[in-house]
Amino acid sequence: MTTSVRYVIADMDGTLLSPDHVISDYTRDTLKALVHKHGVTLILATGRNAADIKIVSNNLRKYIWGEDITLDRPSSPASPSRAPMMYLLTSNGAIAHNAVTHELVFQTCVDPAIAEKLYRLLPDSEEVVNTNVYQQEDWICRIDWPEMLTVHKESGIQFIHVPNAPPRSAEPVPSMAPSGWNRGVAVGNYDNISKVFFITDDEARLPSLAEEVQKIAVSCGGNPVSLTFSASDCMDIMAEGVCKGQALRKLFSVLLSPKEGRDVVAEALEASIAFGDGLNDAEMLTEVGKGCVMGNASPKLKALHPELEVVLRNGEDGVAKKLRSVFGIPL
What we know:
Blueprint: E1 7-10, H1 12-16, H2 25-38, E2 41-45, H3 50-65, E3 86-90, E4 95-98, E5 104-107, H4 112-119, E6 129-135, E7 138-141, E8 160-161, E9 193-200, H5 206-219, E10 225-231, E11 234-239, H6 244-255, H7 264-270, E12 272-276, H8 282-287, E13 290-294, H9 299-304, E14 309-311, H10 318-327
Parallel strand pairs: 1-2, 1-12, 2-3, 7-8, 12-13, 13-14
Antiparallel strand pairs: 3-4, 4-5, 6-7, 6-9, 9-11, 10-11
C-alpha cells in the first residue's frame, strides 16, 4: 500500500472532521506531509454543498500550500508533489470542483419537476421533518432550525428559510437574483438543485417518505432518482446515478489522459484509499483499492460491508492515524 497510494479520498462529517466539526491540527499536519512527501492528491467527498465545503477546503489548502501559492504554477520536475492539487465532490457527488482554482468539473442536477414536488411535499404545518435543498450556492429549508448550523462551525454557512415556496413559475425566472432571499425556489425556480434532503428527529418517518419520493419520480415521467442516507436522520435525494463512487469514476475519467491498452480510471481507483462513516459512502468505499470505515460509522454501513477495515473513530483522528500507518509516518 505505501508506495501505490496516489489518491486519498475522505468524507467530511463523522470522518475527516472531528466531533466539533473541524479538521484537527494533527489531521492537517498528516495531510500536509502526504502531499509534500508522498505526492498524494486529496479528494474531499461530502454530502454538503459546494459553498459550504469550499470554505473548509480553502483553509486546508492554505495550510498545506501556504498563502502565496500560484494557481497556474507548473509542477517542478524535481518536486511534482508540491503542485497544489485537490478536488471536491459535493452533494454526494452531484458536483465536482477543482478545490484550488474553484473550476467546476461537472454537475448533475435533480429534475426541476421532481425537485418542486419534493420541496412542496410536506404540509405547511409540518414541524418534525425539515425539507432542504442545495441550489447552486444556497442552502434553503422550510423550517427555521438554527440547531442545524452547529455542524457547519468552520464554514459558518447560513441557510435561507423559505417556508412557503410557490409552484414552478410559468415564466422563466433567473436562478440567482441579487438577494438570496428573493431567488431560486423562493420565486418558483427549481433549476440547478443538486440535492433535496429531509432531516428529522423522528427517523421512523423516513421510510414512508422514501416511498413518496419514488411515487413522485414516477408521476414526473418515471425519471429515476438516487436515494441514500448521509446520516440515520437525514435522507438525501439526487439525480439518477449520482453517488460518491460514480462521481469518483467520472472525476478520474475527466482528469486522466487515456493510455492505449490501459484502463486509467480503474488504475486510479486501485491506487486510492477512502474513508467514510455513512451509507452514502458505501459505493465509494467499495470502488477504491482500500476502503476504510470509521469506528463511529453507521452500524448499517458496517453490517453491509463487513469486509472493509474499521479504523479509529473521528474523535481519535482515525483517518490521520490510518494514513500515517499506511505511509510509514510516525504517530
